[in-house]
Amino acid sequence: MIEVLWHGRGGQGAFTAARLLGAAASLSEGRYALAFPSFGPERRGAPMRAFTKMDDAPIGDRSAVARADYVVYLDETLLGSGWEHELKPGGRVLVNSAAAFDDERILAIDADGISASFLGRSIPNTVFLGAIAGLCDRVSLQDVGEAIRQYMPEKLHGTNLAIVKEALRRMADASDAVATGQMAAAGIAVESDEGDLRAEDLEAAEGSGSSSLGSPVRPPARICTLRSGDALDPAVFARTTCFEAGYLTAKNAGWRNVRPVIDAAACTGCLQCYWLCPDGTVFKVDQVEPTGAPVAIDLDFCKGCGVCAKACKFDAIAMIPESEADAR
User: Fold this and answer.
1) What pLDDT, in 10s, does the model give residues 227-263?
2) Which of these, 215, 177, 237, lies nearest to 318 by C-alpha position?
3) CA 320 to chain centre
4) N or C of the chain: less Cβ packing under 10 Å?
């Protein structure tokens, strides 16, 4: 039996990918698959898991996968210490990242970049269908394509087929690089040049073109200092949030994959973000510095929902990826 463990966040499509992989693996006679999720009542952005089991015989074991042949991380921040305990001997980890990893068992693929190049926003799930098709002989590109055509809305066929083909091509390029000892972090990362999106891939995917990325997020003139915002291990926040006297007591900032940053120069102090934040993480600054903003954000509890950015009519708040924020 081949088992795949998917780690993702609510809204990233981990269960959709698990189901599509199972469908692709069970198209042929005598092939069986099972896919199911594991999550609680959390909101969009909360850590969740999904599982895919593939075999040549009917599958009776419906328990969660503890050790898998392939472990997929749709969000890089979910890859914490002890990841190797979820991996079978000879297994591989696939992680949504443009970074390089020292461990040869971890294969990084810039799924956010690839999907954004075709869809205009980051939806990384189908990228890993192509990646797994390139690694696992249980499924082929044709099987994945047929599963997409059968189980996704027709309007999504073209772009997702193109995404799968592009991911498979990147996997092949990475394998060639490894074979020649020239593997680099950019081996699978999406290039910024638009010419990297091959026209033949789009034509093969039912004639659908890729979506425009649109205008990039305007870099803030100044990012206000936002309390601690310390990085958290997934084990810390992937649990039920507790309340005490009306205040959050458990840090659940790890739910987010984007964070708000405030452009102090553009902020007018209208306090719409302060009033509308569903978790009360926007707070008024007692003593505003000349170059500061009258509000700040408690990153220990901000879950990156983006309500504050949408509420700001002056474009003073931008949502940026956690990886970009860490680099600053």
Assistant:
1) 444 555 555 544 444 444 444 545 555 667 789 999 9
2) 215
3) 14
4) C
Asked if residues 6 and 18 have their Cβ atoms less than 8 Å apart, the reply is yes
102 secondary structure, DSSP code: S
| Whole-angstrom distance, CA of residue 17 vs CA of residue 20 | 5
Two tokens, residue 63:
């328990």
Asked if 226 and 298 count as a contact pair (C-beta separation under 8 A), the reply is: yes
Q: Which domain holds residue 289?
A: 251-321
Residues 160 and 302 in one domain: no
Task: List the structure tokens of 201.
Answer: 């891939």
Q: How far apart are CA 263 and CA 265, in angstroms?
A: 5
Distance of CA 229 to the CA centre of its chain: 20
The answer, yes or no, to whether residue 131 has pLDDT greater than 80, is: yes
pLDDT tens-place string over residues 85-98: 999 999 999 999 98
Give SS3 for 149: helix
226 falls within a domain: no
Q: What is the pLDDT of residue 16?
A: 94
In the chain, the largest separation of any two C-alpha atoms, in whole Å, equals 71
